[in-house]
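re: the backbone from monday

yeah here it is again, tokenized this time
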């Protein structure tokens, strides 16, 4: 029995080392869905075998700050045209329904086409988010993985 427990512990350590990260969220950009101080599970294997999809919550590094991990929602994928008019997001000319946005803003940003190998990301709390509206699309090589679940505090426990 102790041998099985030891094997499970080694397996869990390997999975944690190679397939997940557990960053603590710092900032208001994803509120109310993900709050500052919460810990989330990042599946670091997700984009080794697949590609980001609209609606995914992704973790990435920003070219301007290689130490910090950013967490935002994918709004546009390669080839998409993304525009923001008075706070309303349009993808390929179609108004995007965003029930996850509780705190919008009324700013306007020029339409941009998402280049190959990149994604366009926005925070759910638009008024408090530094995102693709300001720094442009995120290159795929800067993606760490997909946020899949919250784990701490206990009220956060569950899928994202």
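seq for it, each position gets an aa:
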């Amino acid at each position: 029995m102790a041998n099985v427990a030891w094997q499970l512990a080694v397996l869990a350590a390997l999975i944690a080392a190679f397939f997940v990260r557990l960053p603590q969220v710092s900032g208001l950009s994803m509120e109310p869905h993900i709050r500052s101080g919460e810990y989330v599970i990042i599946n670091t294997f997700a984009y080794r075998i697949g590609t980001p999809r609209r609606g995914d919550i992704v973790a990435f590094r920003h070219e301007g700050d290689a130490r910090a991990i950013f967490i935002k929602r994918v709004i546009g994928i390669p080839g998409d045209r993304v525009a923001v008019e008075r706070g309303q997001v349009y993808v390929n000319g179609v108004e995007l329904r965003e029930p996850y946005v509780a705190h919008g803003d009324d700013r306007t940003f020029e339409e941009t086409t998402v280049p190959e190998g990149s994604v366009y990301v926005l925070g759910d709390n638009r008024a408090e988010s530094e995102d693709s509206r300001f720094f442009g699309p995120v290159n795929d090589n800067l993606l760490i993985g997909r946020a899949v679940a919250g784990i701490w505090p206990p009220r956060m426990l569950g899928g994202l």
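The domain at 2-159 is CATH 2.10.109.10 (Umud Fragment, subunit A). The helical segments are 2-19, 46-49, 132-135.
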